[in-house]
Amino acid sequence: MAVYTHLSAENLSGLIAHYDVGELVSAKGIAEGVSNSNWLLETTGPDAARVDSPHGSARYILTMYERRIKIGDLPFFLGLLDHLSAASLPVPRTIHDRSGAAFRMVGNKAVALIEFLPGVSVDRPTPAQAHSVGKALAGMHLASADFAGTRENDLRPSDWQALLGQYTDSQLAQIDADLPEFIEAHLPRLMAAWPDDLPQAIIHADLFPDNVLMRGNAVSGLIDFYFACKDMAAYDLAVTHAAWCFDRTGEHFDAAVGLALLEGYAAVRPLSAAERDALPILAQGAAMRFVATRAADWIDTPGDALVTRKDPMEFARRLTFYAEHGAQAFTI
Ligand SMILES: Nc1ncnc2c1ncn2[C@@H]1O[C@H](COP(=O)(O)OP(=O)(O)OP(=O)(O)O)[C@@H](O)[C@H]1O
Ligand SMILES: N[C@@H](CCO)C(=O)O
């Protein structure tokens, strides 16, 4: 589920009237995603958009920012979409209202209208798809070099520690009996080994398959930039590797998908020796980041809530894999 706020047809038409996108034809709530409310809107469209549309209408995504996102960060997130789409990356551009604003307030919540991109998210990526994703990620890192905005990563190792530190061992053990010991065994070690001198870029930081739209083997959309921040480019590659190269449970690593992702990335942005050497640690850290946020969401979300909780242990297994086999997994 991901429509937390009801907007009537009148509310939506009134909102759309502030943009040069024609009149509202239809609006559908989008079920995917958990952070924000999203609608797929069809409008009669400005003339330019109508030409491209098979239906004679134009399509947009309307997002209402619900809980996690700070309004102060929106100029960064939305400015980044415009910067990357202007650099010809497959990133939705934002539609500005007639006053030139990239977002508007509806009551006390911010909303933004962004371009709809075609494509579907894949569940089981092939090597060819992973290769395209690697290239797109590297292209994003290069294109962000001249983006004026910046945002600190608020999910660095000390933040994982602070997040997990809010919970008692017995709360964590209710997720999985081994989780407290697992965190104790790995988190201090990762914090001590965490590099701080690798090349930085604006990173996506959450490029899971559900945040990539594909048409066949080609990437048609990179979406959901709401964790984007300035941090190590190789860390973003490690996050993407952890997200793309395993089955959902984290039990099975797909070496061919992993290799294709790395080769695709390096074809566009070659990795330095220091970055390559750091990848096993960065990937363990990436896995720990998702253990931490998933564990916090798990404890804070009632078991009978409509949102399906994501299992932290799927990423604990990935971390174990990287600790044991990271060197081989990142050899290309
Ligand atoms: N620009 C776009 N073009 C086409 N579809 C989109 C676009 N943006 C979002 N979507 C659709 O809306 C869904 C939810 O979007 P998104 O992942 O940004 O939501 P969210 O609530 O922020 O997600 P999450 O919970 O993963 O943070 C996506 O899975 C996709 O189906
Ligand atoms: N992609 C994340 C959710 C957003 O941080 C996960 O699967 O845990």
TrEMBL record:
<dbReference type="GO" id="GO:0009088">
    <property type="term" value="P:threonine biosynthetic process"/>
</dbReference>
<comment type="pathway">
    <text>Amino-acid biosynthesis; L-threonine biosynthesis; L-threonine from L-aspartate: step 4/5.</text>
</comment>
<keyword id="KW-0808">Transferase</keyword>
<dbReference type="InterPro" id="IPR011009">
    <property type="entry name" value="Kinase-like_dom_sf"/>
</dbReference>
<dbReference type="Pfam" id="PF01636">
    <property type="entry name" value="APH"/>
</dbReference>
<dbReference type="GO" id="GO:0004413">
    <property type="term" value="F:homoserine kinase activity"/>
</dbReference>
<comment type="similarity">
    <text>Belongs to the pseudomonas-type ThrB family.</text>
</comment>
<protein>
    <recommendedName>
        <fullName>Homoserine kinase</fullName>
        <ecNumber>2.7.1.39</ecNumber>
    </recommendedName>
</protein>
<dbReference type="GO" id="GO:0005524">
    <property type="term" value="F:ATP binding"/>
</dbReference>
<dbReference type="InterPro" id="IPR002575">
    <property type="entry name" value="Aminoglycoside_PTrfase"/>
</dbReference>
<keyword id="KW-0547">Nucleotide-binding</keyword>
<dbReference type="InterPro" id="IPR005280">
    <property type="entry name" value="Homoserine_kinase_II"/>
</dbReference>
<dbReference type="InterPro" id="IPR050249">
    <property type="entry name" value="Pseudomonas-type_ThrB"/>
</dbReference>
<keyword id="KW-0418">Kinase</keyword>
<keyword id="KW-0791">Threonine biosynthesis</keyword>
<keyword id="KW-0067">ATP-binding</keyword>
<feature type="domain" description="Aminoglycoside phosphotransferase">
    <location>
        <begin position="27"/>
        <end position="271"/>
    </location>
</feature>
<keyword id="KW-0028">Amino-acid biosynthesis</keyword>
